[in-house]
Amino acid sequence: MPESAIADYGLLSDCASAALVTRGGSVDWWCPGQFGSPSVFGRLLDPEAGHWTLGPVTAEPSTRTERAYIDGSLVLRTVHHTGGGSVAVTEALAAEPGARGHDLGRNSPAVLVRVVEGLTGTTRMRCEFVPRPEYGLIVPYLHCRDNKVLVGAGPLALTLRGPVPLACAQGRAYAEFDVAAGQVLGFDLAYAPAYGPPPQQLDPVPTLADTVETWRAMRGQHQYHGRYPDLVQHSGLVLQGLTYRPSGAVVAAVATSLPERLGGTDNYDYRYAWLRDFVVTMRALWVAACQEDTGRLFDWAARSAGNAGDRPVPIMYGVAGERDLSEYSLDHLRGYAGSRPVRVGNDAWRQRQQDVPGGVLLGTHLIREQLGELSRETQALLVGLAEQATHWREPDAGMWEDRGPGQHYLASKALSWGALDSAIKLAPLLGEHADPARWAAVRDEIRTAVLRDGWNERVGAYTGAIGSPELDASVLVLPSTGMVSPNDPRMRATIDAIASELTTDGLVRRWPDDPAGFVVCTFWLVECLAMTGELKRAEALFERTVARANDLGLFAEQIDPRTGAHLGNTPLALSHAGLVGAAWRLTKPGFV
């Protein structure tokens, strides 16, 4: 089977793990238990790495498919119209029975539920179940008993139940069956660790109804009162779907190694949480979701960082606060569209990124009113981050995590300024070791250096790194830190240069030879335009960008401006956080 387009995938989440499913009904990615666990279905990255397909037997020329999330939820309903009839498949990663609102994911049953409903006529359907645990390394034995398939292989157990008998052979279970109008057939696939209680079994139809109500209860706590409310609330829901509910961490994406360039090597594992993205994500949750989400994300970050002492705080963690995310390749997998290597882990955790303190301290200042009195441990963390920001003269890997020698990136310097500016404002909460007077002196040094040395007279703009002649969209964050006014003549010139020279068909590329538009950079340009008072231009760019989401309102990391194809891991938290931030900026252009 050829790869499905990245934009073809829909997201299912139980706020502990996630699955990706195609329009045709194939679950091509599922890492049960936790976002970063090994996959059971991995056809996303190799045709032989497992899938579970539930859809019409043949895709006739007359077949038409439409799909949407059930309003207010991440429960997906897909309707297939065939020559013989129409059938709906409704599916979700199940909520715990009786769960409501923020209980989703805290005790996830790890059950994938799919219900087939005949709408008109009679449709010939197929169920093809091909589990391949451990990223496709294991071809398990399948045991078919009545209408149940038992899978025991390696560290896990799976149980698939359905209303039709399935034939098992060579690690595959298969059935074809007719669905007439009015018939409702439920399937549930349950996961459990191998050496523990057996997989939980749920009744699919009431479980789907409970899961819808659980998501709606979560969305009901959203308190957004601004422009584009449906888009903002949907992106807020996606961000909650990317949240590991037991800890509050928000993963960058649910998959690994979807390429930035087809056939290329820039394929990374994004199933972790980045502190660099903290303020962007925190602001999006604060705007689009509810205070509990922002508070839990803050608590996760503080706990994960621990007592860093004089060492730089790591840029990223696993969802439970794991630090060692050492990277290795899955050489047995072909990769999406032949894009290799396929990576697990991410060696960016070893990098120095001087923007990390800014991300955390700006986010902390944003929610300062709900923090109350800070513990000594949290005070020490925030003071330590402010001290780390005083080392702003050191080179780093930058926002785009360059794996070459460090450079003096302007965005990193500006976020160091933002870290110190926020720490000064937070000083009354930070205890006896706060040093606002010294922090203010260093903060002023940073601003002087950035405005003096970051400007490239020949280019007529602030460039990505000091001394570099290359434009870089990362400098669009400068106004949002508060370091420079968006209406400063040089900043205005920089915004115009990026809009002119880094923008192709309305999509902003990170640097001149970047082939695709980076979604969040486009939303940052929207924010900058809004802050300069060019609201009509900002609105037009925002509306053009949101129209590029897939049919489920999901954004990957990048979009090819020539073809409109989504590229990189999907759905990307930073893209959706960028949408929320841009909509809020269009609502309140002066908001920082």
Automatic annotation (TrEMBL):
Keyword entries, A-Z: Hydrolase
Residue intervals of the Trehalase-like N-terminal domain: 6-162
Claim: Hydrolase is one of the keywords in the record: yes
GO molecular function: hydrolase activity
Record-linked Pfam families: Glyco_hydro_15, TREH_N
Transmembrane domains' residue ranges: none
Source species of the chain: Micromonospora musae
GH15-like domain segment(s): 227-583
Protein name: Glycoside hydrolase family 15 protein
